[in-house]
Amino acid sequence: MSDAVGPYQAFYCEENAFLRVAGPVRPGGDHALFITNARRQVAVFEQRLAPPGEPVVWDYHVVAVDRARQTVVDPDSRLELPCDLARYLAATFPPLPPQLELYSPRFRLVASAVLAATFASDRRHMRDDRGAYQAPPPAWPPIGEGHTLDRYLDLDDPIAGEVFTLDGLRLALLGAAIERP
Question: Of 6, 18, 21, 26, whose CB is crowded by the most CB atoms within 10 A?
Answer without folding.
Answer: 21
